Amino acid sequence: MTAPNQPTLRTFVAYVEDQPGVLNRIASLFRRRNFNIVSLNVGRTHEAGISRMTVVVEADDDKALRIEANLYKLVNVLSVEDISKQPNIVRDIALIKVKAPPEKRSEVLQLCQVFRARALDVGPDTLVVEVTGTQDKIEGLLAILAPFGVLEMVQSGTVAMTRGDISSAAKSIAQERPRIAVA
What we know:
By secondary structure, this protein is an alpha+beta fold. It has helices at residues 22-32, 61-72, 102-114, 135-145, 168-176; strands spanning 8-17, 37-44, 50-59, 77-82, 88-99, 118-122, 126-133, 150-155, 159-162.
């Protein structure tokens, strides 16, 4: 277990207005405050006009509080929550193109099955696989595929959600916009 003042990866969920320039303002805030973004993912929510950002940053407790406070200062930010210490589900997706000539293809596919990865494309000497999971799982698959020759790899930003009931950030949005059903 890490001490409270030791930097760890922190996951923030921010609900923002779906407007031009919001991502730029948030990225600029991180740049100005010298906070390094490890992962950033932005996508639509089930509510029109609202996007959800998942930002992963290396920060200690004090820095995490400052990040949250600074995000709340931005006009288009509706709600922010640090979900790092709550039970949560965290996923990334990666596409990996690996050398897989016909004589090695079945071996590569068997290794992918262990990681619950699936083949998306088969070329004459390549295979593109998709893997979804934690960063450790993706890195594990990459390490196993490295001897075959990883030709390309792309990875999404992290998406995260708290387990159980509606999160406090989502509940805050639901209270502001009564069209969302709150459980």
